[in-house]
Amino acid sequence: MARLALDIREALLKSGKEEFLAHGFEKASLRVICKKAGLTTGAFYSHFSGKEELFDALVKPMLDGFSRMYETVIAEELSDLTTGVENELTSITYASRHRDEFRLLFECSAGTKYEGFRERLINEVFYPSYQAVFDRYAGRDAGNPVDPALVRLILCMKFEEYMELIYGGYSMEEIKRLIVQLAVFSETGFHRLLEELNKEA
């Protein structure tokens, strides 16, 4: 019986993910991807133009969802700082459900248009939103922002915290508990820092 097109596509996505995670995009073998999927290269090319389109199919749906989610949580945090814990839980839960896709982007994307994704995520997505939150609650504007170097250092520390939560082998229950505890720690420091920043203003 002939395999359905959807089944073929899913088999290629599954074997492609395994091969990219094991060897990275550049060293991934199209022949191995097809063999593990039980398909010919001809079947592959009837669904994807090449390895890069396959890689894109693995990460782009997740990235689209991540962008929508992150825009929502940042808008909430800019309007109400008390939503921070809930927003962190939303973000970490999303990332935890897509560990493999983020690992593909962080560690396996050399040679694709996603190469350097980690740095772009920090510099182009997270940094502007962190700066906006700090400026909003410190009562600053674009002409007198909170020190960007300070914001970036705090962001880098927070990013490493997220990486540990996502890839450290914690269960979702542990992650939820730790985020609440870390929020108590972070919020205390944040409010104390705002006091110092307001003295400088």
Name the features.
201 residues, Arc Repressor Mutant, subunit A, elongated
Describe the protein in words.
The protein has 201 residues and is mainly α. It has 2 domains: 48 residues, Arc Repressor Mutant, subunit A (Orthogonal Bundle), CATH 1.10.10; 142 residues. It is built from 9 helices and no strands. Helix 1 packs antiparallel against helix 2, helix 1 crosses helix 4 and helix 1 runs parallel beside helix 6. The protein is elongated. The N and C termini lie far apart (73 Å). The model has no long low-confidence stretch (mean pLDDT 92).
Radius of gyration of CA atoms, rounded to a whole number: 21 Å
Q: Residue-averaged pLDDT, rounded? A: 92
How much of the sequence lies in strands comes to: under 5%
Please estimate the helix content: over 70%
Total strand segments: 0
List the helices and strands and how they pair.
Blueprint: H1 5-27, H2 30-37, H3 41-45, H4 51-79, H5 84-97, H6 99-107, H7 117-138, H8 148-167, H9 172-200
Tell me briefly what this model is.
The chain has 201 residues and is mainly α. 79% of the residues lie in helices and 0% in strands.
